[in-house]
Amino acid sequence: EEMDLKIIIFDSESYTDYSFENELKKKVDYKVLLFNSEKTRVRIGFRKKDMRMLNVTVEGKDIDDPDEFNNTIARAINKTTENLSIALYGVE
């Protein structure tokens, strides 16, 4: 099964698509089929912040249970952002 993920991170000078994709591939037990990012500005409170919207398609076992998603995909994304010192905003 393919799953489309939208990962939202705060933009960073140290961020590169290459490093994020490689780190994510190490952490997630799914095959990464598609990876692209788009820089954008998002209003948070009263300010606009530079953000990156990462669109990722992975292939593997379909997950319907939110707890299982948190323990697999979300945990892998969290570890990836921690290892790269990037602030995670959210996952959809």
Description:
The protein is of the alpha+beta class and 92 residues long. The longest helix has 18 residues, at 66-83. The mean pLDDT is 93. The chain has helices at 17-27, 66-83, and strands at residues 2-10, 31-44, 47-59, 88-91. The protein is globular, with a radius of gyration of 13 Å. The chain contains two helices and four strands; from the N terminus they run E-H-E-E-H-E. The two termini are 17 Å apart. A four-stranded antiparallel beta sheet has the order 2-3-1-4, with helices on one face.
Topology, element by element:
Blueprint (H helix, E strand, L loop, with lengths): L1 E9 L6 H11 L3 E14 L2 E13 L6 H18 L4 E4 L1
Antiparallel strand pairs: 1-3, 1-4, 2-3
Helix pairs in contact: 1-2
Q: In short, what is this structure?
A:
With 92 residues, the chain is an alpha+beta fold. The chain contains two helices and four strands.
Describe the biggest sheet? Answer: 4 strands, antiparallel
Q: Given the helix and strand composition, which structural class is it?
A: alpha+beta
What's the end-to-end separation, in Å? 17 Å
Mean pLDDT: 93
Q: How many helices does DSSP assign?
A: 2
β-strand percent reads: 35-45%
As laid out across the biggest beta sheet, the strand order is 2-3-1-4
Give descriptors for this structure:
alpha+beta; 92 residues; 4 strands; 4-stranded antiparallel beta sheet
